[in-house]
């Protein structure tokens, strides 16, 4: 029971169910900063421990003042924690101490607030209870004086604020630990803008705190019983935090992100950065009207949540440029029904190994190749290098077997799977890496928003549809291999059911991509399911006894994709199966024609024809083997799936007639014959010739 409660708390933490999105500080919040008279020009603008140490090493009085300040705030807490350890009441008082930590961290300034927020998604470092409390950390603190902000704008941009902005709000509309935001209007063009101004003495306070914490970490390294590497943790986090202190970098991040989404997801918008009026401590971006998605009562919130899921999966598995602050306050519904994402001070960049590794792990999961998945998890940093994998393998196998019970990978519930994986962290050397914790949080935040308005809301099949789209459209050799493994498995035999699963997931993805205006905005992802009409060529029709349809077959999204230019790579991937299908269907039709003509078994007749050495004329007769029957069955399954809902499937009471489907598809085929047909004919002739040689001479 206790373990289940711990898991529940952990998942609440990972999913960000306690995140705050208020714009201002609580009344009792007081921020303590290090105010120095000396110039900070010798402090590094990118994280450099040596330079920071050199700067503060020469200023022992300022460091001592900050240490006294820290001890005055934390002294009572540390003494109570020590008593808990002595009296063995750490577990009993865990909640109370976690609340104290949150209150202390809030008052200690930006470095501790940001470090606390970073640790709030690290179950490998903190207990679930501590994670929950740190997520309640409010980054909002009291604002600093407006005249100080105006003076900083002039210093940074080289001219008085009223030379740049025709108006600025008389007070900030939001205030955080690093800076505060004003609403204004540009003088040169009248554009409404948001102007973020950095808080004074932030760099000084952050660097002196890092200097103190890092030196404490160096001391702790002398005690082998302390397993957490404080120095390594601080260095890893601080390098990224320094990027957040640079507003020029934040503006560039937003511009890069917007460009990455512009074509595929035009329903996702990012505020434009005005580089001319942006510096390291002042950021000017376009003002975006709207309401927080978490507070919106509009009917399209669920659709925008699906758009958000696709957006974050695209970041995680495609661009590798990940918005590292998925937070209710950063997700806005615009008046025209788009999803705006704000605040790009902190982004995470994923490697190709991480992006492709996650998709490869899904492919292995589909075929229950748990041995391969465990190795994938080592590469993805879920399991440390050098750990004995044998005890973990059966546990993971049980988790994944349960996940696949409901109908295979297409029905995997991403959040339930994440919860099961989190459970393993309690008993085994298994951890949730920070980048994966971010996607859990992003999807958890989005789902939480939707559930407020619709308790029955479920994210559209979650991650698998997006992964199917990536497998079908990505040109990288690693993902092509993952696609082949997904459909063919270990045996290397084409599996029609797996093919259909992938295509159904792809269609679910198209449905989600059309949400939030993706279809009307001609979003690249929504258009993956459109088949553009082709003109300028004619295809002769073959006369058959099958009744002719006046209208071309109605194509579903999967079929439209296969026939479109965007499906070129996947068609080439399936070329061998297409050739096998054509060969078997053709021979099956010949067998049926012979049967119709009364020639049901011509082999005895042909056997009377004398053989010429190894040549056996009877082998030239069309026939269908057991292997051919499997191929024919696969073809019928796939054709029936691809034409579901079409005029043919509605009028046929005897199943789909493959030849009729081919006849009906000819007029809507795009101009692919020039590139595909020669290769098909070449492989088909090679296959037929090989079979003739095998059957007549061997």
Q: Could you explain how this protein is built, in words?
A:
Strands 1, 2, 3, 4 and 6 form a five-stranded antiparallel β-sheet that branches. Strands 5-10-9-7 form a four-stranded mixed β-sheet. Strands 8-11 form a two-stranded antiparallel sheet. Helices cover 53% and strands 6% of the residues. Residues 533-554 have low confidence and may be disordered. By secondary structure, it is of the alpha+beta class. Helix 12 packs antiparallel against helix 17 (434-453) and helix 12 packs across helix 18 (463-473). Strand 9 and strand 10 (339-341) form a beta hairpin. GO terms for molecular function: ATP binding; protein kinase activity. Residues 167-500 form the Protein kinase domain. Belongs to the protein kinase superfamily. ADCK protein kinase family.
């Amino acid at each position: 029971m206790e373990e289940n409660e711990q898991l529940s708390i952990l998942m609440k933490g990972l999913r960000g169910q306690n995140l705050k999105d208020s714009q201002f500080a609580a009344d009792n919040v007081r921020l303590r900063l290090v105010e120095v008279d000396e110039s900070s020009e010798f402090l590094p603008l990118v994280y450099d421990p040596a330079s920071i140490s050199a700067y503060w090493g020469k200023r022992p009085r300022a460091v001592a003042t900050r240490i006294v300040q820290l001890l005055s705030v934390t002294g009572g807490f540390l003494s109570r924690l020590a008593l808990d350890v002595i009296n063995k009441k750490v577990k009993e008082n865990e909640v109370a101490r976690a609340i104290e930590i949150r209150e202390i961290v809030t008052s200690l300034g930006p470095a501790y607030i940001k470090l606390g927020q970073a640790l709030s998604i690290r179950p490998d470092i903190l207990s679930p209870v501590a994670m929950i409390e740190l997520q309640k950390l409010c980054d909002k603190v009291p604002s600093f004086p407006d005249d100080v902000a105006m003076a900083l704008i002039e210093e940074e941009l080289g001219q008085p604020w009223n030379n740049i902005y025709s108006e600025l709000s008389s007070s900030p509309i939001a205030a955080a630990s690093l800076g505060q935001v004003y609403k204004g209007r540009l003088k040169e063009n009248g554009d409404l803008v948001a102007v973020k101004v950095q808080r004074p003495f932030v760099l000084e306070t952050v660097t002196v705190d890092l200097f103190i914490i890092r030196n404490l970490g160096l001391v702790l390294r002398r005690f082998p019983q302390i397993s957490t590497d404080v120095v390594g943790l601080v260095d890893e986090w601080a390098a990224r935090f320094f990027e957040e202190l640079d507003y020029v970098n934040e503006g560039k991040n937003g511009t890069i992100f917007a460009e990455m989404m512009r074509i595929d997801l035009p329903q996702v918008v990012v505020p434009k950065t005005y580089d001319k009026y942006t510096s390291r401590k002042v950021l000017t971006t376009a003002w975006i009207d709207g309401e927080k998605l978490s507070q919106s009562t509009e009917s399209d919130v669920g659709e925008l949540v699906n758009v958000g899921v696709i957006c974050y999966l695209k970041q995680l598995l495609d661009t590798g440029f990940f918005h590292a602050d998925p937070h209710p306050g950063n997700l806005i519904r615009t008046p025209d029904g788009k999803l705006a994402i704000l605040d790009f001070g902190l982004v995470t960049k994923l490697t190709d190994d991480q992006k492709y590794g996650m998709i490869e792990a899904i492919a292995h999961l589909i075929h229950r190749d748990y041995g391969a998945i465990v190795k994938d998890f080592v590469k993805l940093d879920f399991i440390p290098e050098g750990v004995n994998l044998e005890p973990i393998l059966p546990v993971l196998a049980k988790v994944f077997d349960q996940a696949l019970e409901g109908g295979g990978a297409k029905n995997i519930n991403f959040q339930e799977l994440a919860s099961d994986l989190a459970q393993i962290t309690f008993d085994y050397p298994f951890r949730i890496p920070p980048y994966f914790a971010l996607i859990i949080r992003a999807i958890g935040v989005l789902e939480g928003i939707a559930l407020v308005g619709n308790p029955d809301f479920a994210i559209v099949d979650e991650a698998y549809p997006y992964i199917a789209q990536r497998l079908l459209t990505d040109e990288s050799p690693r993902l092509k291999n993952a696609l082949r493994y997904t459909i063919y498995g270990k045996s290397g035999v084409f599996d029609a059911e797996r093919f259909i699963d992938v295509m159904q997931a792809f269609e679910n993805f198209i449905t989600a991509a059309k949400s939030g205006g993706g279809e009307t905005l001609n979003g690249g992802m929504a258009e993956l399911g459109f088949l553009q009409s082709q003109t300028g060529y004619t295809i002769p029709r073959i006369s058959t006894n099958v009744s002719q349809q006046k209208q071309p077959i109605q194509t579903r999204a999967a079929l439209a994709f296969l026939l479109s230019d965007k499906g070129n790579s996947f068609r080439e991937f399936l070329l061998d199966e297409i050739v096998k299908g054509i060969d078997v269907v053709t021979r099956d039709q010949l067998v049926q024609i012979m049967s119709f003509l009364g020639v049901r078994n011509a082999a005895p007749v042909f056997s009377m024809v004398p053989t010429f050495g190894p040549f056996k004329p009877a082998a030239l007769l069309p026939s269908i083997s057991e292997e051919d029957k499997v191929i024919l069955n696969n073809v019928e399954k796939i054709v029936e799936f691809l034409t579901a809902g079409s005029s043919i499937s509605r009028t046929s009471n005897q199943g789909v007639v493959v030849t009729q489907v081919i006849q009906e598809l000819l007029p809507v085929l795009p101009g692919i014959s020039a590139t595909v047909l020669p290769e098909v004919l070449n492989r088909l002739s090679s296959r037929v010739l090989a079979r003739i040689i095998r059957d007549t001479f061997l």
